Amino acid sequence: MAGAAVTGYRSAGAVNPVTVNSFAGEIGALRPAVRDLVRRRMDVLAPAYRLMYAEPLDVSRAAGAYLFDRDGRRYLDLYNNVPGIGHSHPKVAEAVATALTEANPHTRYLSEAVVDYAERLLETFAVEARPPDRVQFCCTGTEANDLAVRIARAAAGRVGVIVTQHAYHGSGGLAVEASPSVAPGEDWVFAVPAPLDGDPAAFAASVSAAAAELDARGFGCAALLLDSAFTSDGVVTDPIGLLGPAYAAARAAGGLVIADEVQPGFGRLGDGWWGHARHGVVPDLITLGKPMGNGLPIAAVVSRSEIFAAYEPAYFNTFAGTPVTVAAARTVLDVIIADGLIEHARSVGARLLGGLQGLFGPAAVRGAGLYAAVDIHDPAGRPDPAATAGLIAALRRRQILVSATGPGGSTLKIRPPLVVTEADIDHFLEVLDDELPRLVG
Amino acid sequence: MAGAAVTGYRSAGAVNPVTVNSFAGEIGALRPAVRDLVRRRMDVLAPAYRLMYAEPLDVSRAAGAYLFDRDGRRYLDLYNNVPGIGHSHPKVAEAVATALTEANPHTRYLSEAVVDYAERLLETFAVEARPPDRVQFCCTGTEANDLAVRIARAAAGRVGVIVTQHAYHGSGGLAVEASPSVAPGEDWVFAVPAPLDGDPAAFAASVSAAAAELDARGFGCAALLLDSAFTSDGVVTDPIGLLGPAYAAARAAGGLVIADEVQPGFGRLGDGWWGHARHGVVPDLITLGKPMGNGLPIAAVVSRSEIFAAYEPAYFNTFAGTPVTVAAARTVLDVIIADGLIEHARSVGARLLGGLQGLFGPAAVRGAGLYAAVDIHDPAGRPDPAATAGLIAALRRRQILVSATGPGGSTLKIRPPLVVTEADIDHFLEVLDDELPRLVG
Ligand SMILES: Cc1ncc(COP(=O)(O)O)c(C=O)c1O
Ligand SMILES: Cc1ncc(COP(=O)(O)O)c(C=O)c1O
């Protein structure tokens, strides 16, 4: 274990899951309207832009758990976790429009709505043992992770960061440096294998070994930065208690713990608000994003005041924590509570996970609530990215949207808006049952 | 000059302009309603948050160039450049609300509105000699500058970045490392004095000296990163042609040039869309933000495809370039054109600058269009931050909002929404004329 860990970051060599389910640029095969738009897009957007699916989807309307293309065809969206309370939620549209007609000052002016939201957000952590008491707003998950690492460094008086080998924490700043799935590693980043085997002690041992290596490199361990559900390492949600020993190992080495809740947060796992809390652990810093504003750019670092106080540079983010995006975020909290979406995620998620286990076998399925991962194997039991891609394309033809994740891109990733219904899930399971014999095993 | 430049970044020791006009925490002196809200805010927001003014402003409504406090008192806003087309613009509210009820997919799906906007945005550069042809959306100016530096590094095959001594380019990532006004410097950043003397050759010489020093440090010069109006160095807009020799010096050293248009862009200077174009120069990368979406979080890196292509890592920003924020940005372009706001900024700005010159003397005033800076001196001609603060507070009492900038915080910063009227400016000049005798000289 320690041996594997000490190979560290540069050896990760992940297949970037981003590129697994991408449109490959075969323009000729597309329908004319789509082809023209793809061409125009390629002529003006930077070359790093990617489209999903061999036939990219031109989205003209969206509602609840459905996307509609230009021709009005409806797709069941089992992939987009940003619109957690449902695409184009009317209450979000209303709250945002109202804020836009009232006022949208930045945070150097007073705004009661922003204070109010921060109070409400902190309440979601109140059940925890040593709850965070302060919020710093950002616009993106990337910004939140960048800032959290800076704060952890200041508080720890160290530099090194431990992540998992296929982690994704953002597209820029220190967040991309700490994302082995995207960037070539810097020496202060050390990547350990995600605990896909579900062994808390072995995971903790590799964190300790990583911290020792960071000490040896002269950086020390400033932070253990973990997605609380390891969503880009293939999704690991169990056993409950998985994170405790690793958190302790990082702290024993003088580091802080940052819980990246950008994917698992806001009730996604159907068991309280936050992925780390499910494991009964208390991080030092927590980063939020994606579903926070149902698609409006809002993110946050949440922590305790004494930890924030360690970071001295002024932090001012022009657009963050302003009434317009906060109006969306406030609506998200209200709707999750009023509509019981966490309980809904738990019960509909149980149906989803149970159904997947029935189809693929219990060993192939991981997840909790409405976050599910299914390892796709070839008949010899090896990871099968081609079959995974085939399955995604077949579902796309049947108007169901999922995608892939994991080191080799051979893990189905399923994370619908929380408002997906039992009937939607049953339909998905039936279509899977129908398509599977043609594709795998 | 070279001597001063070679002192480099760590010696900058700027008074952070962010803290010049801050509420100092004297809660007791505030009116009860404001006091309670400030208390609640301090209890939940991170300690890095700052409020402006000795008596913070509780904004309940905003329209055009006016802010209204909780008691309905109206303030003339001569400071906020984010709502360029005016606070709470009804067309922005309408466009955003419509997009929110239709669809807001991320950039791995097709959306004609996003392609359309990118086309329109690129048209604003069409008058330039070698216009950029591709857009990469971000959510904040920080993200845009972070990415632009990464791209420049990849394209140049070098690491070092040259900035000015009191520059501000962002709150995180490589942008904050390259912001001497906030962060302690890293060795790959070298800061040169801003050309406050308006001498293009001397400025170019200090860029050459900085590049040589970065070569000597082993980093080389990847980029010269300049705010096209040097807005946090005290505002330098003239003479026309100021930037050309410095751009050439950076290129002679193997570096690219990044024009930070977050402050001067979108017509602010009353002379075309972009601050760099006013000087007849062509940057390699251009970063946009602040007024781009009139307050919605949207920013961009604009460049040529071959430069973008040098940067290999995948770039995906969950919230960037989505229909909702693009709807706001599209409205901004449309309104600037339909309402002739660039010409308006030029004519109203000329009145503002002329009036300020009459009051403070031509030597104390810099700026172009609706971006004005006034150096405030004591009777002996020394920079006077106390008088500057006094003037800002006096204007605040007279319900006019401005703030301070510059190394010592002794420069008034005036940059109203572009829709400010001649009558507003005349009122401001009259109030200034009235208050000045009590405060300075
Ligand atoms: C776990 C995790 N952290 C951080 C991020 C970055 O978020 P953003 O795209 O808003 O910068 C992502 C985005 O996919 C993510 O999945
Ligand atoms: C010149 C300049 N560049 C970049 C930024 C960073 O923009 P943001 O706050 O959106 O990250 C600012 C913000 O004040 C700025 O003034």
Automatic annotation (TrEMBL), chains A, B:
Presence of the UniProt keyword Zinc in the record: no
Transmembrane as UniProt keyword: no
Annotated PROSITE patterns: AA_TRANSFER_CLASS_3 (PS00600)
Assigned keywords, A-Z: Aminotransferase, Pyridoxal phosphate, Transferase
Family: Belongs to the class-III pyridoxal-phosphate-dependent aminotransferase family.
PANTHER family in the cross-refs: ALANINE--GLYOXYLATE AMINOTRANSFERASE 2-LIKE, PTHR45688
Name this polypeptide is given: 4-aminobutyrate aminotransferase-like enzyme
Species of origin: Naumannella cuiyingiana
